[in-house]
Specification:
It is an enzyme of class 1 (oxidoreductase). The protein has 445 residues and is an alpha/beta fold. 49% of the residues lie in helices and 7% in strands. It is built from 25 helices and 9 strands. The strands form 2 sheets. A 5-stranded mixed beta sheet has the order 1-3-2-4-5. Strands 7-6-8-9 form a 4-stranded parallel beta sheet. The relative contact order is 0.10.
Length: 445
């Protein structure tokens, strides 16, 4: 079994006949929880696409079991089927036996990254992604050529060239969000006081991709929290929380970012650390588990995770105090997987949206199926992601919405890509709430 050059874990020993190394392999108790009943199959995106048993949760658990017994290597089919998983956790919601597939996948992906040599092209592509996306300064620098490219893309010759890009590059190009240089370089106030009587004091994770390409969502979040009586702190020297790398199995660098996030936020005198990104929140709430075997950080991580709340959880726990203006229209709510399945935050976003007078909130058919975004999945597996995105778009169209809302930047980009010609605004829920509170027209993006 080969190991990627430069890996920090190249000296991790093997345990007996197992294909896994000794650092946090899948736990036998968790593997044995699966009774292979099949309740997960209707909710699994890849099983729905291909009908392949090994691309279902129970099939992947079977492969993990074989690898733990040394009956299959991590290279080849094992890696392929694990890479094909979106990590959406719909199976966790569906499972009647309480199988913790999230923890199993979380333990397996780092094993693959440490112990399997990816082909050169795949490795370079993944390295390029992680050399850019977790770094706010690099993203801001990329916003300048990005804005220029989007203007050039209106030229037919440039558009033709873009349409000839190969698979993964074409996927990245098609997912490029509307780039505003002003927005990319904007900064949130370090402190925003509560409007009226103070009800609490919170700190906001501004994020990396979120703060550069969806800064307007962060601005709306700060305004809404302040309008509802919260002092809002946004530390300038915060960095990436590590979620994107963690979901891709890059454990060492992800935990390094997690520790830096804990160290920065634990010094703040706040009641809650708020996140408005589903993927970030799901990882930050798991820091305590992820560092449970780290004597230095375990308690600090648990204390930090206990204070993390999604913005909808914060807004839903108290009666609203800010007046709302009506919104007369149909609003389709898409459950971001890492909010609905991973964090179990489903009722709160809907409750928050229903505080807007006259809003008609509608759910989607096949709501449990992932849209195909899934962290970096729509870049590394563009064909499967494209099929899922098109399927999600058709389900959205079927409810004839005036506005679509979802609480994750990846979902906003993925659904936006597949509904670009529909002309329906696609927003974060706090943007719609912010417009209602301020009495301004609903933004287009």
């Amino acid at each position: 079994m080969s190991t990627p050059a430069g890996s920090a874990d190249t000296n991790i020993p093997q345990t007996g006949p197992s294909a896994f190394d000794a650092h946090r392999p899948p736990e036998r108790e968790l593997l044995d929880d699966c009774v292979h009943c099949g309740f997960c199959l209707p909710t699994c995106p890849t099983y729905q696409l291909w009908g392949e048993e090994m691309d279902s949760p129970r099939g992947r658990i079977y492969l993990m079991d074989l690898a733990s017994k040394g009956e299959i290597e991590l290279e080849g089919p094992f890696q392929e089927h694990m890479d094909a998983c979106l990590g959406c956790m719909a199976c966790v919601t569906a499972c009647p036996s309480g199988v913790q597939y999230d923890k199993l996948l979380e333990s397996v992906r780092p094993q693959i990254e440490r112990n399997v040599q990816r082909d050169r092209g795949d490795q370079l592509f993944r390295e390029a992604i992680f050399a850019l996306f977790p770094y706010t300064r690099r993203l801001r620098a990329a916003a300048l050529p990005g804005a220029l490219y989007q203007k050039l893309r209106t030229i037919p010759a440039v558009r033709k060239l873009a349409e000839r890009l190969p698979g993964r590059l074409a996927a990245m190009e098609s997912l490029l969000p509307p780039v505003s240089v002003r927005e990319a370089f904007a900064r949130l106030p370090v402190f925003t006081p509560a409007v009226g009587a103070r009800r609490g004091r919170v700190a906001l994770l501004s994020g990396c991709v979120q703060d550069v390409f969806f800064h307007r969502v962060n601005e709306a979040t700060v305004r809404v929290l302040a309008a509802e009586g919260y002092d809002v702190l946004v530390p300038r020297d915060q960095g990436c929380c590590g979620a994107l790398e963690l979901h891709a199995g890059r454990e060492e660098t992800a935990l390094g970012r997690a520790r830096r996030t804990i160290a920065r936020f634990e010094t703040l005198d706040v009641d809650t650390v708020v996140t408005n990104v589903a993927g970030c929140g799901s990882s930050m709430k798991e820091y305590g588990h992820l560092m449970s075997d780290d004597a230095e950080w375990s308690q600090r991580a648990q204390a930090f995770s206990a204070r993390v709340r999604d913005v909808h959880e914060v807004l839903a726990e108290l009666e609203p105090v800010a007046a709302r203006h009506p919104f007369r229209g149909r609003v389709a709510y898409h459950d971001a997987c890492h909010l609905g399945h991973a964090q179990k935050v489903r009722a709160q976003p809907r409750a928050v949206l229903r505080t807007i007078p006259q809003v008609e909130l509608v759910d989607l058919p096949e709501a449990e199926l992932c849209c195909g975004s899934a962290g970096i999945y729509n870049m590394v597996a563009p064909e499967a992601a494209g099929e899922l995105g098109a399927r999600k778009a058709e389900n959205v169209r079927s409810v004839r919405p005036d506005v679509i809302v979802t609480a994750n930047p990846g979902c906003l980009l993925q659904i936006g890509k597949h509904m670009a010609s529909d002309g329906v605004p696609i927003l974060h829920p706090v943007q719609l709430l912010d417009a209602s509170i301020r009495g301004v027209p609903v933004p287009r993006t």
